[in-house]
Amino acid sequence: xxxxxxxxxxxxxxxxxxxxxxxxxxxxxxxxxxxxxxxxxxxxxxxxxxxxxxxxxxxxxxxxxxxxxxxxxxxxxxxxxxxxxxxxxxxxxxxxxxxxxxxxxxxxxxxxxxxxxxxxxxxxxxxxxxxxxxxxxxxxxxxxxxxxxxxxxxxxxxxxxxxxxxxxxxxxxxxxxxxxxxxxxxxxxxxxxxxxxxxxxxxxxxxxxxxxxxxxxxxxxxxxxxxxxxxxxxxxxxxxxxxxxxxxxxxxxxxxxxxxxxxxxxxxxxxxxxxxxxxxxxxxxxxxxxxxxxxxxxxxxxxxxxxxxxxxxxxxxxxxxxxxxxxxxxxxxxxxxxxxxxxxxxxxxxxxxxxxxxxxxxxxxxxxxxxxxxxxxxxxxxxxxxxxxxxxxxxxxxxxxxxxxxxxxxxxxxxxxxxxxxxxxxxxxxxxxxxxxxxxxxxxxxxxxxxxxxxxxxxxxxxxxxxxxxxxxxxxxxxxxxxxxxxxxxxxxxxxxxxxxxxxxxxxxxxxxxxxxxxxxxxxxxxxxxxxxxxxxxxxxxxxxxxxxxxxxxxxxxxxxxxxxxxxxxxxxxxxxxxxxxxxxxxxxxxxxx
Amino acid sequence: xxxxxxxxxxxxxxxxxxxxxxxxxxxxxxxxxxxxxxxxxxxxxxxxxxxxxxxxxxxxxxxxxxxxxxxxxxxxxxxxxxxxxxxxxxxxxxxxxxxxxxxxxxxxxxxxxxxxxxxxxxxxxxxxxxxxxxxxxxxxxxxxxxxxxxx
Lengths: 594, 151
Hints:
The complex is a heterodimer. Chain A is of the alpha/beta class. Chain A folds into 4 domains: 4-135, no CATH class; 147-258, Orthogonal Bundle (Fumarate Reductase Iron-sulfur Protein, Chain B, domain 2), CATH 1.10.1060.10; 274-369 and 526-593, FAD/NAD(P)-binding domain, CATH 3.50.50; 372-523, FAD/NAD(P)-binding domain (3-Layer(bba) Sandwich), CATH 3.50.50. Chain A is globular. Chain B is an all-alpha fold. Chain B has one domain: Ferritin, core subunit, four-helix bundle (Ferritin, Up-down Bundle). The longest helix of chain B has 29 residues, at 119-147. Chain B is globular, with a radius of gyration of 16 Å. Chain A binds chain B through residues 371, 373-376, 386, 418-423, 442-443, 450-451, 473-474, 489, 494-495, 497, 503-506, 522-526, 536, 539-544, 569-570, and chain B through 33-37, 39-40, 72-75, 78-81, 83, 90-92, 96, 141, 144, 146-151.
């Protein structure tokens, strides 16, 4: 760390600077002007860099123009030609690498650091104190169940952070003044604020801060693809690994739950207006919570016998324990939300009938209808859609048969078609139910696998095999119409098309057969048509998804809103929640006027 | 099989084929209850109309290019099972139907090119086959993007 004494340097102090390797001075005088002279590497080219030797004066000159925000590759001592970058130090302001020099000041030799990013108070000599630089703390990994043990049970794989690890990870956050991570979150959680509270040991406050924007933090902390959302935008991630925001979110939500700190807020301005929500998935639950907190009377209609939608029937216990889903739903019950199970809207009640009794409706029924590739043999026995396979396993608890009365789809050799998270869930579930060989067949290369890296890593650890650049072209059956193999064809990635994507193209005569006695198809989903049979005036697009006004999520029927997979097709939990938030705000705005 | 001796004979045949496709899609569109799907088939019909216009233009001007562009063949139409047209068709089924129609046309022109007498006629059939292959690719890309999408 930088010496505390540097803080006491006065504004515009002249600094004598030296190389930490050869101790040559960087100070020069040109026509009575005092300067600091360095060599640097910029875009692979050696250039001269001149800095001001006065603290808090931002003069800079280079032989090649460097734009604001651009980064030097290296800063080099002109005498010994050694790199001045200190790999253990990063700029606390922007996370960029920092160069290390020695200054003579206050009768001492002191270490000093210069940020290599132009625009980040470029020569880095101002406000030099411990807040400007940080020791590099590596991203903290979550402890998890041993891979040989976990394939024999359905319990959650990662254990979560301990408070010590969480504090260490929270310490990595740069507390940016204009945080990009918040923009990356579909529900705009104030991420730096909750991490700041964690750093102050106020885990309860941190949990409450998240809940201001996200009613399902323990769920999002587990299943959100943070690497493509908040963490992708984390400034620290430019040169280092981003802050593990998802793990921190999970930690504080778990802490709040385990320490029994959840408090139901007082709802002040109750209205006499009623809201119906169709579907209890993440989007529906978000609308329910938002509207309940705004004083509306909310009823959620769920078609199945358990609440949670895809969180319950789609995501396996080892990724998202159902007790956590239940706990988050109980919080909504405490907010006064009513839940009606086994209510299929479209048959038991129609949307029009709901409109007679409710002021507004939100449709968040997901896209739960399976879609097959339309190849030969899909109707053979033991060829499952991922929807059916996972529903049997997760919702109906087939893996606990006979304790639960649903037979378990089981195969010794299992083929899973697809490379998304659902495919990983199916493959990892099959491994846990005793299948000896589970193979994922994916038509593109590893680089394009859409599943989260973490899921792919876990699947490989657990013994799932990957047949990449491979596509199934037909399922082969036995004499009694049960699957006995999948004929596949090898693929190669073709030239990029107009959209820039390289499409998988079959390689001629590369067909081969994978023996299997169970196949799960995890490609494509489509909307369940039940609700539309009795509401034909609900405008839909060619894929059958509901068309909405993107500003409000209102459908073609006034006061009927929709969001999540039933609008966008298969997406993420947090995106569904974001759509729910948009709809809730629009509903409130409209109903407040009426 | 029909005998083709002149390029204009081939063009007339191809123009008829495109018109048949236009009629087929328009007829199907008129039977569909779902507005979005009706628009899909009307759009398919319009695209076929565009193909017909292109052929008419060649016939009128008497100029055609054999493109050297290699058209990607995703071969999706080779392994998917064809569907029968019905008023309740989904968009996935519509794509399957369209892909197969284009594949059939592509193979037809390719066969004719092998049997055609003389290089000029051969080249002309190859050009038509390439054109159909391009149409097939348009549907295959959509199928690849949306139906075969992993979840």
